[in-house]
Amino acid sequence: MPRAGLDPTAVVAAGAALADEVGLAQLTMGLLAERVGVRTPSLYKHVAGQEDLNRRIAALALSEAADAVGGAVQGYAGRDALAAAARAFRAFVLEHPGRYAATVGLEPSGPDDPLAIASQRLLDAFTAVLRGYDIAESDVHHALRTLRSFCHGFATLQAAGGFQWSTDIDESFEWLIAFADRGLRAR
């Protein structure tokens, strides 16, 4: 019988929090079982295994990132929307580096996969940003990849301690936003 209060949602939430603390690569079923106070085999009543747990964490992370970015861009257009989206995405990655790491490189199993649904929501939020620019429909995917590369690259480098210079990181990020805005406007 499953432990009272423990269900797939609680297990995934605990796994995501633990991934943020120790890093996704260090997250194991054994460590998670210890965190939630059960023996490791008990977790298999809620998730199919490590791969399933990681996929569920990724779907959660993408959904949370979509909420953050989508909420941030409401009422903004152009550079203001770009800045709001980029800042919200960066903040999410910095606050949740482990769960965000789960999102990289996973392929949805189909259109109904929670991973696909959450991914599309995040893409929709960034696509809304692009509406403030004169981007040809045929170039939207290229622009989305460019924005993802900017935001993902900066945030993951920062989360990993990759900026060791004394220059203010926030100023560098604002420079990146201005750079992306100029590039989108020139397109």
From TrEMBL:
<keyword id="KW-0805">Transcription regulation</keyword>
<dbReference type="Pfam" id="PF00440">
    <property type="entry name" value="TetR_N"/>
</dbReference>
<keyword id="KW-0238">DNA-binding</keyword>
<dbReference type="InterPro" id="IPR036271">
    <property type="entry name" value="Tet_transcr_reg_TetR-rel_C_sf"/>
</dbReference>
<dbReference type="InterPro" id="IPR009057">
    <property type="entry name" value="Homeodomain-like_sf"/>
</dbReference>
<keyword id="KW-0804">Transcription</keyword>
<dbReference type="Pfam" id="PF13305">
    <property type="entry name" value="TetR_C_33"/>
</dbReference>
<dbReference type="InterPro" id="IPR025996">
    <property type="entry name" value="MT1864/Rv1816-like_C"/>
</dbReference>
<feature type="domain" description="HTH tetR-type">
    <location>
        <begin position="12"/>
        <end position="53"/>
    </location>
</feature>
<feature type="domain" description="HTH-type transcriptional regulator MT1864/Rv1816-like C-terminal">
    <location>
        <begin position="82"/>
        <end position="178"/>
    </location>
</feature>
<protein>
    <submittedName>
        <fullName>TetR/AcrR family transcriptional regulator</fullName>
    </submittedName>
</protein>
<dbReference type="InterPro" id="IPR001647">
    <property type="entry name" value="HTH_TetR"/>
</dbReference>
